[in-house]
Design goal:
The complex is a heterodimer of chains A (about 325) and B (about 260).
Chain A lengths: L1 H35 L7 H5 L3 H35 L12 H15 L3 H24 L8 H23 L5 H10 L7 H20 L1 H7 L3 H5 L5 H23 L5 H13 L4 H24 L7 H18 L6
Helix pairs in contact in A: 1-3, 1-13, 3-8, 3-11, 3-12, 3-13, 4-5, 4-6, 4-7, 4-11, 5-6, 5-11, 8-11, 12-13, 13-14
Chain B lengths: L3 E8 L7 E8 L4 E5 L6 H8 L5 E7 L2 E2 L5 H7 E4 L11 H6 L14 H13 L15 H13 L5 E5 L7 H16 L4 E5 L3 H7 L2 E6 L2 E7 L5 H12 L2 E7 L5 E7 L5
Parallel strand pairs in B: 3-8, 3-9, 6-7, 7-8
Antiparallel strand pairs in B: 1-2, 1-4, 4-5, 9-10, 11-12
Helix pairs in contact in B: 4-5, 5-6
Classes of the chains: A mainly alpha (about 325), B alpha/beta (about 260).
Amino acid sequence: MRNTTVSNQSSHTMRNRTYLFIGVIFLIILFFAGLFIGKYPLSISGVLGGDQYQVRIFWTLRFSRTVVGLVGGFALGISGFVFQLLFRNPLASPDIIGVSSGASAGAAFGILFFSGVLSVSACAFSGALIAVVLAILLSGLDRSDSKATVILAGIAVHSLAQTVLMVLKSMADPEKQLASIEYWIMGSLSGVKSETIMVNIIICIFCVLLLFLLHRQCLLLSQEEAEARMLGVSVQKMRFLVLVTATMAVSSVVSMTGLISFIGLIAPHSARRLTKDNSVKTMFLAGIIGGCLLLLADILARSVAQTELPVSIFTSLIGAPFLIYLIFRRRHQI
Amino acid sequence: MSFVKFEHITSGYGKGNVIEDITFEIEKGELVGILGINGSGKSTLVKAICNVLPHEGKVTVNNITLEEQTVKDAARMISYIPQKSGVSLDIPVIDVVLMGFNPWLSILEKPGKEMEEKAEEVLKQVGLEDRIHENYMELSVGQKQLVIFARALAREGVLLLMDEPESALDFSVRYRAMEIVRSWIKKGERAGLLILHDISLALNCCDRLVLVNNRKVSDIIDLRRDTAESIEEKLQKIYGSLSLEKIRSKNGKERFVVLYDSEEI
């Protein structure tokens, strides 16, 4: 019997490694596809051969945008994984619990009242953090400890953020500010410029690394408060640290790309469905799937039509049916 | 000198107190059970001991006041088995047991080889050696509870605190689990506090029983000294009409049997 268990474990480990390997291969392919596919097709020989036009497009448009697609998608996947663990709810993702809409309202506030990329990022982060704190406070009002509470609280926070956004839009200058806000809400990687993304990329990578280091704590936090506390976890402090880190990762991404829907929901679920566990490998796979999804959505957004489309159209095309499937699925564990 | 002391514990939710002035002691190597009807405040007492609920009074374990300890230090002293664990993750069984070592690890540290060996040993003790690397969520409710028992027993705690841990276990497994708990307590400087619904289990497994009624300690039963008549009388005060019999089992041991007296059944 023992031998069977050990062989089951090794085949499980082997299978997970295979998924990771395939995922990394896909990610690399999509990364290079992202660099070369688009309105102005580039070729490896052209870029390496020193064709000035191609080299300029490569460095000014494609490279930074593809890096943001990779890092941003990865971070959204990881944050979704962490949110689902902490809220003990398979539907808890940055967009569903109101983090993304909070970030949108924050960014709109930044566009209206401040100038500069950093101020908009800081406002997006503040908006996201306020949203997550509100969702926690609202769900805390219900003592039933129902898993649905955080989702309902998220819907309330989302509506509130939308109202704030509407007010800010009505105050915006229609020529310039309103266009920026709309563009931001639609979500696109076309506005990504290498000189403006550095700080956000660094924040994003730092947060993701920290979340990986806190993986064991996230598993402990997925239990009831008394149980986690009796396992030596300072529940409030640790929950705050993890949530702030995950929120910061999300807001650093959305302040570069605008609102990107559903990746934080789809990526962790797909990873768990493949590996059937919540290990660090699954967390990493969630990041890889997130990266693949955003890179693919961005390639489609700039290739399928004459004009560039918002990325969220493509992520929502997969995400919305996926959400319906999750709601009707009976197994509600994570 | 008592090993564990609960002194004047008063706690509750909002304005009203659910428990008032709960005071009792546990000796080294002793397993004490708490009995009481639903709503008598047993679970509130557990939450107060876990420091999840604000409370008055104090708990001292081996002369150390729990309320003055950090979360980690308090967790090193108490091994806790909840009524139903909140673990609802696809995660290997051994990883659930390894969570028990968290108080001895820094935030970023991972459990070591020794801890893994200890976890495997305890899983073997509770009869789950062939499920070590399987998904915890695919176990039966009773097996899951045994994993949580293993998690509490794998570590070097001082006080084993159990909140109706037997409710998910079937007849033979709950007695087997109690045997394991008793042998854990007898090893080294340890004691156990068990909150129970099952009166028979309490009478046959514990050394003493604390009866809680109307928010307060109503009586204490010493099962090693009190007579069957006196035990019956104390139990009747909270459970109403019941009969207590002492019978000899097939292996010659004296056991308590509780019967509920009713005209209807």
